[in-house]
Amino acid sequence: MLDIGLYTLYALLFVAVAAAIIFPLINSITNPSGLLRTGIVLGVVLVLFGISYALSGSELPRSAVAAGLTESSVKLIGAGLIMFYIVLILAVLALIYSEISKALK
Question: By Cβ atoms counted within 10 A, which residue in 40, 60, 61, 83 is the most buried?
Fold first, then answer.
C-alpha cells in the first residue's frame, strides 16, 4: 500500500514540476513584455544578493565549527540573512509609502 502512495506522489510531483516550468514559458511567449519585467526583477534580486554577499562576514565561531560549517557556508548564510533584512525593510517602506499615498489622494 505504501508503494502505491509513493508512486502516486512521484507522478503528481512530476506533473506539478512540469506545469510550473511549461505554463510560464507559454505565458512568456505570448506576452514578451512580461519576460522583460521578469528579467529586470531577477537582475535586481541578483544585485541585492551580490550586495548581501559582499557585506556578510566569513568568521567561523566555535559553534559553527562544531556544527561542521565551512567559511563559504557561513558567508552564504550571512548573505541570506542580510538579504532577508534588506527585502524586509524595503517591503515595510513600500507598505508605508502605499498607505501614505492612499491617504493623500
Answer: 83
CA dihedral (17, 18, 20, 21) in degrees, to 10, reads: 120
**Contacts of 38 by beta carbon, 8 Å cutoff, 6+ apart:** 28
DSSP 33: H
For the entire predicted model, the pTM comes to 0.69
Q: Please write the tens of the pLDDT for every residue from 22-41.
A: 998 888 888 888 788 888 99
Tell how far CA 37 is from the center of its chain. Answer: 16
In percent, the amount of the chain with pLDDT more than 90 equals: 64
What element of type H or E holds 10?
Answer: helix 2-30
Task: Identify which of 46, 73, 42 has the alpha carbon closest to the alpha carbon of residue 60.
Answer: 73
